[in-house]
Amino acid sequence: MKKLLYVFFSLLVVLLVGFLLLKNAHSPQYSGQITLDGLNEEVTVYFDSHGIPHIYGQNAEDTYQALGYLHAQDRIFQMDMMRRVGTGTLAEFLGEDVLDIDKFFRTLGIPQHAVWSTEVWNQEGPSEWKSATEAYIKGVNQFIQEGKLPIEYTLLGSKPREFTINDMHGVAGYMAFSFAMAVRTDPLVTKIVRNLGADYTKSLSIHTLPEHYVIPNHYPERDVETGTIVRSKQTIAFLDKLPVPMLEGSNAWVIAPERTASGEVLFCNDTHIGFAQPSVWFEAHLEYPGFSFYGNHLAGLPFGLVGHSRHHSIGLTMFENDDQDFFEEQLNPENSLETKYGDGFVPMTIREELIPVKGKDPVVITIRESIHGPIMNEVVPEISRLTANPVASWWVYILEPSKAMEALWKLNHAQTIEDVEAAAPLIHAPGLNIMYGDKEGNIAWWAVARLPIRPAHVNSKVFLDGSNPDDEPQGWMPFSENPMSINPPSGFVASANNQPDTLSNGTFFPGYYYPGDRWNRIAKTVTARNDWTAESIQKLQLEAINENHPLNAQSMIAAVGKEAFGPYTDALKALERWSGNHDLDIIAPTVYYKWLYHTLHGMMADELGEDDFSTFLTTFLYIRSVPTLIRSEDSKWWDNIETDVVETKKDIVAAALEKTLQELAEQLGKKDSEWLWKKVVQVEHPHPLGSKKPLDKIFNVKTVPVTANEESVNKLPFKLNGDGIYKVNSGPAMRIILDFADVDAAISVLPTGQSGNIFSKYYKDQAHMFATGNYRPMLMNAKEIEEKAVSNLVFKRS
Known about the structure:
With 798 residues, the protein is an alpha+beta fold. It has a domain at 548-581 and 587-675. The chain has 24 helices and 31 strands. The strands form 8 sheets. Strands 1-31-2-3-7-8-9-10-19-20-22 form an 11-stranded mixed beta sheet, with helices on one face. A 4-stranded antiparallel beta sheet has the order 23-4-5-28, with helices on one face. Strand 2 (43-47) and strand 3 form a beta hairpin. Helix 2 crosses helix 6 (128-146) and helix 5 packs across helix 8. The longest helix is centred in the N-terminal third of the chain and has 28 residues, at 60-87. It starts with a helix and ends with a strand.
């Protein structure tokens, strides 16, 4: 027995020592001193209790160089993943399992576009944003050369190559694509239009319907001579394998002084992004003479996409505008390298690219481009299944070089509302809603994107005729006609990925907009009172209510009758009384979502097939069309085309209910009062290496159940399915609340933690806070930061 105990404790000591050695070899450094090459003056960094660095420098270059080092030591693996996706070099690092991703992004043209943007960058003269960007890159690369790399690189047997400006442009390109709705949606819509026809499309919301909520525009009054804003105040599929998160939506609203208790602007933003570990935003507070800014940074970019100074705050949501069209080309029967255009034929361009693959020989791909863009058939299975003709992608982003660094620098350093408005048009894609508030009482929203002028007859969600020049865009709208609202009479601006109202030029611009359920809840709530505070607005930001779901449920109950529930009376009563909330201890969502899935499957899978039905559930079309589909009585979708009889709504809904009740009884027990929502909700933030067991136990971050929902303000969605387990796949990537009456009291929270390093104590320290609806401060007061600092780090000159 003594020998066994000795062996056990010896083994325990060895494991403990081994763990400590690993931790010491791979942990970020949060205290002490580090020498940085090329530093002009010493930089001091204070880390608060959640690992947020507060960086104090004497000039921009030193401060951004320190930021680059700090960003890399907490997020270098994430930065590496992001830049490899955007430069088409993911397989070089992770192997042939992700080769399809590289093929797709290279065919789409993002790596090629990054090279072009870099060439333009190098040709431009010196500027403040160029010197700051280059300093940031210098800091990143010094960490790569001299810092303690995270354990992921040891496990993969590699080391990151140095960072470049081209990598940054690759990251920007990935961000531009990550909305991805056109690639998922347009082939599906085209299939429905071609194969099923108008009787089926009329039950879908391919375009915005009259009952959807639009964002009102309010074009500002401007000074005739200077053009400045007059500040008169108003009265009251394979992409699922991506190792980095995709931008999906977001909420933001800004409340004018006349609606707040403090008499100052109240600013709120929560960007909706795919859940991942680490979470997408890296927070950093930068201070040097003439500049003070607290920003949320995307991996590999030096300037905050979201953030605030003491004077202004910048937020964003996805605009969801349609900036990608697909042109179906016709080949010349005499020459397969030419496509028909008008009365003649034009040549395609062809290039080969070599994709390095870890552990394998490089793979050569051939990319063909028509005059409309790259041919996508070989990398988008939905397109190849639909047509044998070449289909080209016309995408706004690759039509002009990126100026993202300049735009973000100017947004971060803006002094006036005019500065922000001048910087916004530099972002040509992806479409973003830029939200703004400032100390002077201004509130604003700009929909930022280059908007093409399409011919009136064009349906941009259906493949266009590549041989017909009349189907092509006819030019660009001036930015002054973009959707916007500046100091509106309503006393608030808000965006929730829904349709902007008719523009000043009369255009109702097409897009992949959400129906506006979130926007409506925000608008109704904000306008209900004029004494909002940072504390009271939290309830709205955390709200998990959707008013449409109970109406869908009532329509389904009416179709089958109450008697169809049989002994499951608790389930019936729960649905009848449901307000649309998603509290964890109620049963209505558990019954509703499973019933909804089986109903939609019974309606649509026979016409679409299983693969395309699954795709449908991942698109905006699903969210926008459910009310119309479910509440219709005579839709063609109700009939099962695989049977000889003509099914009715009652037939499909009743069969779905019978299956739902049977499956829930098997899954959760026959006592329907115990079918609680919390029993079927799962939350996990997956790390890129977490897809391989048992690494998921080490790197992934799991939390307690959350109020999972579809289209509530606190959006925590999941893919609808018949299994009855709902894995939340995205949600707020942060929750920001800022009252300009006290900028130092601004609050936020991240879904997991600040660091992406498994050995950091900040790896998942915010996960429970986030899941349970709590916040922590975004400190900016120097005295408070020094007093509360957990540690401090000094960067010294070499």
